[in-house]
Design goal:
This protein has 442 residues and is of the alpha/beta class. It contains 10 helices and 20 strands. It has a single domain, classed as FAD/NAD(P)-binding domain (3-Layer(bba) Sandwich), CATH 3.50.50.60. The structure holds flavin-adenine dinucleotide (FAD).
């Protein structure tokens, strides 16, 4: 693969600026929805957003006999759900056990962590039950520490989580990390044995197919421009079209637009980027990930990476500094990040660069619930393959009035900040500051 001398020295001359996932396994997102089809006049539930949250909710609702329409501004799966790294884990809260206990009390902290672990098992069960072929493997994840202090903090947290909620994880000191990763960048790390990875676009396509089989309508090019009350029902405007619904679920996460200001001002959109390397030799791939594990680290910019399902490429992701989509810039930054960890990949070209917009929240927790009768589930803070699937199911149970809809996240206040309207002007500054601290190894 030749490099493009004009663009940047690490991009292949035929580098694509679309997700690697869209190029393999015959994924055709456009085929998942009816685009331009007439909408029904009325449904029981209108689901706004066709990613994992919306599709998982639609599946539960349709199986319970509800008439459901999933409306996506582009096509179902177009957002993060076909762009992510596919790494799956319990997404334990950023504050850790001690931070959670200080904020909510020990009992609530325990409930939140246990439910996060249950959410991951829900994902594995659903994929097995629905027989969704999405190259899911459960080979564990190595999370590297970028400093000795980070390693000690990781060891304390791992010990506490093993005791409190039975996390299946082991510390790996620096002297032994060669058995986990072909890099001496880290000061040791932790292996979480229950984690895995999947092909995200195949998973989205599989969920969409199950929704259609269950009777849900999936509609593309259907941007919802407004949602208003109409007696007992809601009235949705979609281009020149209208739809009445008894219930509405907002599942737009990082793509939540100005048409939903109440949700937008509670979310901080961040661009997360990924690169795929050109095919590497079998020996190189085995040296990078000897146990076919996924990876992440404790850096503030949060690098995450994994082998491709065919084991021939490294797929490497992290935060982009700007909210605007500048793939050449974040492609170059990610290549630099990758070669700091794996100097042996310095000469390797990038075949794909892409990104998506994730949604952070002010309290670092995902949220689900109801505002003025409108249901929502969102704010997965960059870690949503398992969480979105689980939250979609739980919010669907709540719409159904099911007793098992209760979650430990129900009563967490969904905060915003004064004068914040959803435009994250401060993010580039914060990320550059974080990058500096990471480079100093703090
Ligand atoms: C590059 C990248 C890497 C990631 N890696 C990982 C990972 O390895 N592991 C992990 O757990 N998580 C990862 N994530 C996060 C994860 O992908 C998301 O948290 C998850 O997919 C969110 O799903 P969702 O259904 O809530 O939102 P999305 O999949 O983003 O779907 C939202 C949808 O809403 C639609 N929409 C928006 N507004 C409207 C409207 N007004 N009307 C109709 N439709 C609308 C959009 O078109 C979009 O399709 C990553 C994300 C990115 C971008």
């Amino acid at each position: 693969m030749r490099r493009d001398p004009l663009a940047s020295d690490c991009l292949a001359s035929d580098c694509k600026f679309t997700p690697y996932w869209w190029d393999v396994d015959g994924v055709d997102l456009a085929a998942l929805a009816e685009t331009g089809a007439a909408l029904p006049e009325r449904v029981d539930v209108a689901v706004v957003g066709g990613g994992y949250t919306g599709l998982s909710a639609a599946l539960t609702l349709a199986r319970a006999g509800r008439a459901v329409a999933v409306l996506d501004a582009e096509v179902p799966g177009f957002g993060c759900s076909s762009r992510n790294g596919g790494l799956v884990g319990p997404s334990l809260h950023k504050l850790g056990l001690a931070g959670l206990s200080a904020k909510y009390g020990a009992r609530k902290a325990d409930d939140i962590l246990r439910e996060s672990m249950a959410g991951l098992e829900f994902l594995f069960d659903l994929i097995a039950r629905e027989r969704i072929d999405c190259h899911l493997v459960r080979t564990g994840r190595f999370r590297g520490a970028i400093s000795p202090r980070g390693y000690e903090a990781m060891a304390r947290e791992t010990e506490a989580l093993k005791k409190a909620v039975g996390l299946d994880a082991d510390m790996v000191p620096r002297a032994e990390q060669g058995a986990e990763i072909g890099s001496d960048h880290y000061h040791g790390g932790v292996v979480s044995h229950g984690d895995g990875f999947l092909q995200p676009a195949l998973y989205a396509a599989g969920l969409a197919a199950r929704c259609r089989l269950a009777g849900a309508g999936l509609f593309g090019q259907a941007r919802v421009e407004s949602v208003s009350r109409d007696g007992q029902d809601f009235d949705l405007r979609i281009g020149g079209r209208r739809l009445k619904a008894r219930n509405v679920l907002i599942a737009t996460n990082g793509y939540t637009g100005k048409e939903l200001p109440g949700f937008r001002r509670r979310l901080i959109p961040l661009r997360s980027g990924m690169i795929a390397t050109e095919p590497l030799s079998g020996d190189m791939m085995r040296s990078i990930s000897p146990k076919n594990r996924g990876f992440s680290d404790d850096s503030r910019l949060v690098y995450y990476y994994r082998p491709s399902p065919d084991g021939r490429r490294l797929l490497f992701g992290g935060r982009a500094f700007d909210i605007a989509d500048r793939p050449r810039a974040y492609g170059r930054d990610l290549h630099a990040g990758m070669t700091r960890i794996f100097p042996q990949l310095r000469a390797v070209a990038v075949s794909h660069v892409w990104s998506g917009v994730v949604a952070y929240t002010f309290d670092h927790a995902p949220h689900l619930g109801e505002f003025d009768g409108i249901h929502y589930a969102m704010g997965y803070c960059g870690s949503g393959v398992g969480r979105a699937t689980y939250f979609g199911h739980k919010i669907a149970l709540r719409i159904l009035g099911h007793p098992q809809s209760r979650t430990a996240f129900d009563d967490l206040p969904f905060e915003t900040r004064p004068f914040y309207n959803g435009y994250p002007w401060f993010v580039p500054f914060v990320l550059r500051w974080h990058a500096l601290i990471d480079r100093m190894g703090r």
